[in-house]
Each structure stands twice: as C-alpha cells, then as structure tokens.
Amino acid sequence: MYKVASASEYLVITGVGIGDIKIAKKAWILPGQYCTVFDISPVNYTFEVQAMSAEKLPFVLPAVFTIGPRIDDDDSLLKYAKLISPHDKLSHHVKELVQGIIEGETRVLAASMTMEEVFRGTKEFKQEVFAKVQLELNQFGLLIYNANVKQLVDVPGHEYFSYLGQKTQMEAANQAKVDVVEARMKGEIGSKLRDGQTLQNASKIDAETKIVSTQRQGEGKKEEIKVKTEVKVFENQREAEVAETNAELAKKKAGWAKGAQVAEVEATKAVALREAELQRQVEVMNALTHTEKLKAEFLSKANVEYETKSLLPRMR
Length: 316
Description:
By secondary structure, this protein is α+β, with helices and mostly antiparallel strands. The protein has 5 helices and 9 strands. The protein is elongated.
C-alpha cells in the first residue's frame, strides 16, 4: 500500500530490502515490510529536580523543558526513530529518559558549586545545565527547543534561600538607612558648600568684572587711538596721493603748453615760409611777364626797323 505522513509526522519503514530503517514522508509499503508513524512535534516536560550543593545543602530546581527531535539532521532523526519506535512520545519511557538526564547533569553540576555560587550565578548555572543536558540528548537525536527554569526553591527543613533572602533584605534595608544618613549629611554639607561657593563666586565675579571692565576700557582707548592713528595715516596718504596727482597734472599741463607753443611757432614759420614761397613764385611770374614784354617790344622794334630798311630802297 502507499502511505503518506502528515506535516508533523514521519514514516519509519523496516523489513525486506531495508538494511536498518528507512525514514520518509511518503512511500510504498511492499510485502514483507513494516511501517510505523512517529510524531516529531516537541513535548513539554515539567520537573522539580532535587540537587545538593558542595556544602551538602539540598535545593529544588523547578524547570520546564520543551524537547523534540532535531529535524534538520538525518542522523538525529534516525536516532530518535529508534528511540521512539516501540513507544509513544508521551510514554513514561521517554519522559524518564529525559528526566534522568536532566536530574543527573543538574546534580553533578550543583555538587561542584557552593550554595552561594549557585545563588549568585543563577543565570550561569542554568546555562551550564542546559549545555550539559543538550550534550547528552544529542545521542538520542533530541533538541532543547526552549527551557525555562524558575527561581531556586528550598527543600522543607532547609530554608537556606529564605534566610539568604532575608539576609539580603536586611542588608539592603541597613544599607538604605546608611545611604539615607549619608545622603542627608552630604545634602547638609553640600548646602553649606554651595552657600560658601556662592559667596566666593560672587566676590570672584565682582573682582573679575572690575578687571574685565578696566581691561575693556583700556582696550577701548587703545582701539580709539588705533583708529585715530589709522585715520591720520590714511589722510596723510590721501594728501600725498593728491599732491602727487596735482604735480603730475601740472607737469602734464606744462608739457601740453610747451607743445602748444611749439606748434604755434611751427605754424607761424610754416605760414611765413608759405608766404615767401608764394612771393617768390609771384616775382618769378612777374619777371617772366616783364621778359616776355621786353621780348615783344624788342621784336616789334626790330620788325619796324626791318620793314623800314626794306622800304627805303624801293622808295628811291
């Protein structure tokens, strides 16, 4: 037949064709094979472990462990399957096995510690118990999913924790009284100190204020003198710059006047030269005109004389 396990179950198959056991979520069950179903959901185990410290003082450790198979490891599942196959997970066999491991490791660990060490290091004691119990459960494929250990309890007739608690309370109460007295004393001393410090600080502040005021007045005068000096220096610099600018301007004006005079003289000379040139040209023209006039007169005179000489023989 074909069998399928639910979400929180596994099938354990033995028989023909299987050397040891086979674990599966679903499988065909062949003739000659045997199949059982086991639940892997964790189970809560509640114990009151009685242990004894190194001083032979007994105490009770109330604890609740949530234990189940380690489902993330195939070897652990095989170990758990072999453990649980003949029994139910809630059977006395499994509970006695788990309880025996927890009680044994707790007693061994408690026997190596004094009651004071157990009481003062309760957290470390519990963690050590869990670690040692888990180490033993590994051989059965079991895992501690959660563990809750309550406050350590006295065994009737041995009220160690009760007396220790009363001692702690009395020490705390006495210490509180001492703290109150010390606080009151510190408060009164502090009040006197604050009053004295207030007066001292007030006198110190007055003296420092006067010093600061005098320093500020002196610094103010220094700053005023410094500013006046800087203003005077600036004014002198400005006057020097203005004088330099005026001198430069005067120099440029002189140069400009000289240039103007030179230009005027050059212009006058140029006009005179031009007039002389024109006068020369006029005189040359006049001379040429006179020469031409003389030439014309001489030519006319010569012509007259020639003609006169030519007519005389004819008239004879």
